[in-house]
Every structure is written in structure tokens, then in C-alpha cells.
Amino acid sequence: MNMKLFLTMVLLGCAATSAQAQSDLRFLHESPITKFKKADTDLLLKTLNQALDNGTDGTPVTWENRSAGNSGSITPSKDPQGRSHCRKARVENRHQAMHNATEAVFCKVDGKWKAVSK
Question: How far apart are CA 21 and CA 2, in angstroms?
């Protein structure tokens, strides 16, 4: 799966099933990503890479854009399939009272993290 596409899905809070997402996209209107600016997305992606590269399993790595009121965390853990070049991550995003969390598995391919599944 394309990393950019997958991250967009993660950022949008696609905790819903594919059928839900295809039939009813209203859940996206209440997702923190709808309020994020480029600076927020940049912080999120930087934190994601940092957590996957160096984060301790089970310990959240946080980001915050105080001026925009947006924040989040990435909590890395071992890959459920035991692959040494992969990690699972819980991605949480917040905008004021809005909150969303989802999990995904990322594998390092050619030096870059790529989303492989949810």
C-alpha cells in the first residue's frame, strides 16, 4: 500500500471498516485531521518516523502544535508477525475536543517506513 495514501487514511481516522468508509464518509467531518494544517501533518510524520526508528515499545512519542491546538502521539510496539524490520504503531491525534486513534503495521523498505496493514 502506498505510504502517503495509508497515512492519509490513518490521519483521517479510518478506524471504520472499508464498507463504512465507502458507504458513509460523514465520520471524516469529525476527525482531527480535518482541522490540521501542513505544520501539524509535518510534525505528525516526523514523530511517526522518530517513533518507528527509535521509540521504545509501549512508550508514546508525542507531538504538539500549541499555536493550532493540535497534538498526538505514536506508540510503537513489536510487529505482530515478528518481522524484525517491521513495527506496529498506535496513532492518536487530537484537535481540541476531537480525538481519534488507530493502529497500523509499518515495515522499513529501502530505508523508508511503509504502511503494510492495519
Answer: 18
Q: What is the pLDDT of residues 16-49, one digit of tens each?
A: 334 444 444 444 556 787 788 899 989 999 999 9
> Which residues have a Cβ under 8 Å from the Cβ of 70 and sit 6 or more positions away?
32, 35, 36, 37, 40, 64, 93, 94, 95
45-50: Cβ within 8 A, 24+ apart: 45/7, 47/72, 47/73, 47/74, 48/7, 48/74, 48/89, 48/91, 48/113, 49/113, 50/74
Look at residues 89, 114, 79, 117 and name the one whose alpha carbon lies nearest to residue 4: 114
Mean per-residue pLDDT, 45-67: 96
